[in-house]
């Protein structure tokens, strides 16, 4: 079976790179998308969520923030602000971030702060979810 290379890149550098992915499942703004070797090339926006990679029949989960995926026949490049493999997620940090964001959202904030807090809450809740796959 031909496999894909998956590269997940952030401003801090590469977070995940494997060349033997059998299937990569992306959470795009339009829904879930499964990618295998030979997929039609495309670029798609990603929402805060996870990337699921199956290699040798085993799945890895990587939490990602908003960004883009570039799909080529033999490769998937993911460019996001932040990404962490389930094993690298600091659960306590994510819980604190969730508490902070919830506190802001419960307060009397202006629109800009609300939007920022909503995104922070989504990132924190996503990390808490993905950490379950440790
Ligand atoms: P926090 O308020 O805890 O910093 P955040 O959502 O504002 O959370 P980001 O701006 O998305 O954090 O990420 C900043 C950096 O910290 C990135 O490199 C990201 O991978 C890392 N990071 C954030 N939260 C966690 C976490 N819970 N576990 C591991 N790394 C994290």
UniProtKB/TrEMBL annotation:
Record Pfam families: ATP-synt_DE, ATP-synt_DE_N
Swiss-Prot/TrEMBL keywords: ATP synthesis, Cell membrane, CF(1), Coiled coil, Hydrogen ion transport, Ion transport, Membrane, Transport
InterPro entries: ATP_F1_dsu/esu_C_sf, ATP_synth_F1_dsu/esu, ATP_synth_F1_dsu/esu_N, ATP_synth_F1_esu_C, ATPsynth_dsu/esu_N
Keyword Calcium part of the UniProt annotation: no
Limits of the ATP synthase F1 complex delta/epsilon subunit N-terminal domain: 4-83
UniProt membrane topology term: Peripheral membrane protein
Residue ranges constituting the ATP synthase epsilon subunit C-terminal domain according to the UniProt record: 87-132
Coiled coil: 107-134
Domain of life per record: Bacteria
NCBIfam families for the chain: ATP_synt_epsi, PRK00571.1-3, PRK13446.1
Subunit structure: F-type ATPases have 2 components, CF(1) - the catalytic core - and CF(0) - the membrane proton channel. CF(1) has five subunits: alpha(3), beta(3), gamma(1), delta(1), epsilon(1). CF(0) has three main subunits: a, b and c.
Name listed for the protein in its UniProt record: ATP synthase epsilon chain
Gene: atpC
